[in-house]
Amino acid sequence: MKGTNLGEFEELVLLVVGISNGEAYGISILEEIEQRTGRLVTVSTIHTALYRLEEKRYVSSEMGGASKERGGRKKRLYSITAEGHQALMNARAIREELWGLMPKLNF
């Protein structure tokens, strides 16, 4: 398995999966990231991050039900795992510690 550190984009994807409470899928993640960050993101970038997160065991996935809107196709739904939640908590703690060390700068 690759390293378990979270990259910046992986962290964003994992956060969106977490707040989606088991209802996250590629396009919904893409739309949330674009809306919140103003970044343009491709579906393949989202899926690549999801594959890496699944490999690290930070997310799990299952096939959802078919829908008429998707022409009867199913979509893969993602959920955050306990390991994924812990990885987010660790990343947050590190960031908060570093922000706490930031001196007050007078620009």
Automatic annotation (TrEMBL):
Transcription regulator PadR N-terminal domain: residues covered: 19-88
Membrane-spanning residues: none
Pfam families: PadR
Annotated protein name in UniProt: Helix-turn-helix transcriptional regulator
Species in which this protein is naturally found: Splendidivirga corallicola
